[in-house]
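ok trying this again, last paste got cut off
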Amino acid sequence: MLTDVLVKSLARSTVGGEVIDTTERLFGVFQQGIKQLDIGAEAITFIRNGVIHLWAILEKEAELDTKLDITGVFTDIYNSSPGKYDFLILTRSEYQRRSSVVVGK
């Protein structure tokens, strides 16, 4: 899966074992939180230029309540570990456009 490749390769390039451990924990919390919402969303997590990217990918535009639920997952993470984040809720087509930039296609 593209997500796993991005997480592993980018996390390894991060300096300092503590940063990697914390980042991997945050990735897991975000992925689990999105999964527990049971809304069919995919959690995409990676590091780029020192920023932790936490993206929720949906097949179609979400209702406000769904967006608020996803935002709640991110808010819990941010409140427990403030830092530099890029949090997005995207449709699959929006993600495909952005991911080509992230992986340098």
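PB: full thing came through this time. The two ends are 16 Å apart (CA to CA).
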